[in-house]
Amino acid sequence: MIENRVYNFSAGPSILPDEVLLSVRDNLLNYLGSGMSVMEMSHRSKVYDKIINDCIANLRKVMNIPDNYKVLFLQGGATGMFAAIPLNIQKTGVADYIVTGNFSNIASKEAKKYLKEVRIAGSTEAENFSRIPAQEELTLNPDADYVHICQNNTIFGTTWHKLPETGDVPLVADLSSCILSEPVDVSKYGLIYAGVQKNMAPAGFAVVIVREDLLAGAQPICPKIWDFQLQDKKNSMLNTPPTWSIYICGEVMKWILSIGGLDELKARNQKKAALLYDYLDSQSFYKPSAQKDSRSMMNVTFRTASDELDKKFVAESIEAGMTNLKGHRLVGGMRASIYNAMPYEGVEYLVDFMKKFACENG
Ligand code: PMP
User: pTM (2 decimals)?
Assistant: First the structure.
């Protein structure tokens, strides 16, 4: 780790790879002989054109995205896409939403503004979203335009380990907090979207990966900056794109390719998550918040026996050189977000701290 940097367990915006930050620093004032920073560059310039095209091409390579899927970079974050998706891919105006946490809940409410009917095809709210529903618990409508899930629930620390079976109905998935953490079979989805501020880039846009046959044309009230077909024609540059964030995203793609791609990241992420969960399972001072079969590899949630001890844990973790371990208010306790850029040593450091804290306060 670079000197004077903390272990940052933030859920997003989040830690970026040291290698990327160093390369960005080295090119900050004069990007590849252009005489200016990427921040200052016209998005219509040749230099920038290469930045965005390489970024998209490398993302396609990293995720092995089939040719019949479009890749779009759109502003408004994942929250913007909660509206943009129903505005772009509705046919009959009826869709199924499976609610497994805060963001899928917000997504369903946003979609209601633009669809005739939003059905809640499953929910684990009664158990405070501590798990993912089983296939038998879902009541899916075979005539729905799409089924929406949030694949990794950032706040609750749960993840869909097996995707729901939706038959011929396209699966639309929010991968904001798990994209690029392991290989996914893109062809299983109708649409994947993600806010980039966790595993991809600094905050600034959402990536949308959509099967081209789903693009039947945006609804007339759809803002044109979110019109998927139009943005595809304009290479995601209908207006000024978030140039800086896209540039860093491109650097993150190069970093992923340089270390061996998503297979390597999956191996690293599994090792980090296993270290933390194995420790949690081996003791009784901390209690994991998510049920075992639904646990997330990216966001690990746990608590002590009391709110006071949780507070003490968070305060002392900051003194020890770690940040953002406080859990979201909807769950309480602690949350360690261990995204791609978190080194194994960071998780080791956290587990050592947890052992010491348990010893002193148990
Ligand atoms: N979905 C998920 C799973 C998230 O974690 C978040 C934000 N943390 C959002 C959606 C909302 O993203 P944004 O802030 O980009 O709108």
Answer: 0.98
